[in-house]
Amino acid sequence: MVVALTGDRPTGPLHLGHYVGSLMNRLVMQGDFEQYIMIADIQALTDNFEHPQKVTENVLELIRDYLAVGLDPSKNTFFIQSQIPEIAELTVYYLNLVTVARLERNPTIKTEIQQKGMGESLPAGFLCYPVSQAADITVVQAEAVPVGEDQLPMIEQTNEIVRRFNRIYNTDCLKECRPILSQTTRLVGIDGKSKAGKSLGNAISLSDSPEEIKRKVFSMFTDPDHLKVSDSGKVEGNVVFAYLDAFHASKDEVAELKTHYQKGGLGDTTIKDILNTTLQNLLDPIRGRRAEFKKSDLLDILRTGTNKTKEKASGLIEKVRGVIGLKYY
Amino acid sequence: MVVALTGDRPTGPLHLGHYVGSLMNRLVMQGDFEQYIMIADIQALTDNFEHPQKVTENVLELIRDYLAVGLDPSKNTFFIQSQIPEIAELTVYYLNLVTVARLERNPTIKTEIQQKGMGESLPAGFLCYPVSQAADITVVQAEAVPVGEDQLPMIEQTNEIVRRFNRIYNTDCLKECRPILSQTTRLVGIDGKSKAGKSLGNAISLSDSPEEIKRKVFSMFTDPDHLKVSDSGKVEGNVVFAYLDAFHASKDEVAELKTHYQKGGLGDTTIKDILNTTLQNLLDPIRGRRAEFKKSDLLDILRTGTNKTKEKASGLIEKVRGVIGLKYY
Description:
Two copies of one chain form a homodimer. In chain A, the strands form two sheets. Chain A has a three-stranded parallel β-sheet with strand order 1-2-3. In chain A, strand 4, helix 10 and strand 5 form a beta-alpha-beta unit. Chain A has 15 helices and five strands. In chain A, helix 5 crosses helix 9, helix 5 packs parallel to helix 15 and helix 12 crosses helix 14. The radius of gyration of chain A is 22 Å and the shape is elongated. By secondary structure, chain A is mainly alpha-helical. The longest helix of chain A has 30 residues. Chain A folds into two domains: 217 residues, HUPs (Rossmann fold), CATH 3.40.50; 82 residues, Tyrosyl-Transfer RNA Synthetase. Chains A and B meet through helix 2, helix 3, helix 5, helix 6 and helix 8 of A and helix 2, helix 3, helix 5, helix 6 and helix 8 of B.
C-alpha cells in the first residue's frame, strides 16, 4: 500500500470545514492507503510557542475528533509529531539544502506571514516550517499527501529537498511525494467571509452542542436583500445554500429549494430549519461517539501509533546518517 | 565543578593557531572545569553539506589532535555533535524564540556570509547556526564557554534564547553561560595576512612533518625591506617574531633578538632557524603521540564521551519537553 501522510495542528476543535475538506477524504482513503495521521504539535508551536497549553491541551480533543468521525485505529496510524525527534534531526539536515531566499519566496509562507502580521517579528521557526514539513513527510516515507491547493508549494518544496538530498548523497533513500488534491471546494465561514476557520470563530465544530449548532445556523449570512419571504433571494454567496450543497443528502431537493428561493416565497427560516436538521443528523452521532472514548483509550491509541511511527522513523534516520557518513563506531 | 563547552569543526587538522588560541586554554582548564569538547560535525556540514566526507573523515584526526596535545579523556568529555540528536530537537524549539531579523543582524554570521560569498545562496542552516550553537551549549548545561572576541555575539544570542525560554515556560531549566575570553592574541598566518586558517593554507598543522614545518617557517613573511643582514629590520608585522612571541620559551631572549634585528646584523635565516628549532621541539612530541593512538582507542574514547553526553542531554530534553508540556502519556 502507498504511504499517505496527513495531519492537523492541535489548536482547537475540528469543524465542518475540516470534515468536507479533509476528514471525508481520509475516511475514503483508509484501508486503501497506509495512512499516517499526524498531530502536528511542534508545527502548531511555531506560532503558539508562548501559549503551549493551547496546543498541548488540544491533542486529546483532536484524536477524539478523528475517532468520532470514523477514522479507524486499525486502519490508520495516529502519531504525535513531538514524540518523533527524528523529525527535528531531519529538519536540521534539510535546512542546509534550502536557501533563505527560497523559503522567503514560498507563497504559502508569504501569505501566512501577511495574514498573521509578522514581518520584523517573524520567528525563524515559522520561516523554516516548510523544511520541517518536508521532514514530516519523508520521515514516514509518504508518497501521497492529501492537500488543499494552497499547500501545493509545500509539496514542491519537499520534493526539491528530496531530489537535492538524494543527488548530493547519491542515494534513493528519500522518496518524492505527490499531492492528492481535495475534490471539494472550501467551506465558507458562517459569516460568509473567507473560509471557515478555528481562529476566526466562524465555524461549526464537530463537538458543538445541538443548541450551538442551531444558533450558528440561524446566524448564517444569507441574502441581505431578501427581506420578505415573498422576495426573490440570491443563492450565490448565501451561506445556507453553500452548506446545503456540502451536507444535504439530496442534490435534487437542494436544487428545488434554490429555484424556490430565487423565485420568492421561501423564507430564510425555512431553509435554516432544513440545514439545521441536516447538520444535527450529521453531528449527533459524531458527538455521541466523542463522548464514548475514555482518556486512557485515546492515550493507548496515540502511544501505539506513535511507537509504530517511531520505528519507521528510526529506520529512516539510520539510513540518512549512513549516507551522509555520520556513523563513526 | 562548572561545566564548560568548547569544540571544533572537523574540517582539517588543527594548527598552531588553535594551539595558542584554544587548546592551551583547554589544557589549563582541564581538571578545574567539567569540560565538554565537542566535535562539531553537524555545524561543519552547514557549509560542507555537499562534501560530507571532508567532515566525517576528519573526526578521528581531530580527537587524535586533542589527545596528542595532552587533553586527558579522564578529565574531559569528548563527544560527536551528530550523535546527540537532542541538539537538533532543542534547535527546533529555539528557532521559535529567535526572529529571522535578529539572526540576520548577528555580526558573526554577517561577517562569515561576506567571507564565504553567500548572499542569495545562503542556506537556511547557515543562518540558523547560532541557534544550533545555543542548543550545543545548553544541552550540556554549560555555564562557561571559552571563545574568541569574534564569538561574543554567539554567547549573547544563546543567553537571549535561554532567558526567553525560561521566561515563557516559567522555568529555570536552561542555564545562562558566560564567555571565557582567550588571553592570547590571534596567531597570524605564515603569509602575514589575516589569521592562520585551515582553509587559507597559511597555517602550521600540529601533524605537519618536520620538513613541512621547516619549509613553512622559511617561507614566512618577514620584513620585505630587510634585504641584507646588516640592514635594520622591522619587528612589527614580521611573522617570525609573532611566532617567537607566541612559542619561544624565553621572553628575554626574544626581546634581545628583536633589538638586534632592529639594529641590523641579524639575518632572517638566523631567526628562522631559531623559530624552526622552537617549533620542532614543541611539535615533535605531539606528532609522536599522534602516532601512538590506535583507531580503536580513539573510537572508544569518542563512544564513552558521547554516551556520557547523551545521558546528560536526555535528562535536559526531558525537562524541556516537560515545561513546554510535550508529555502526553
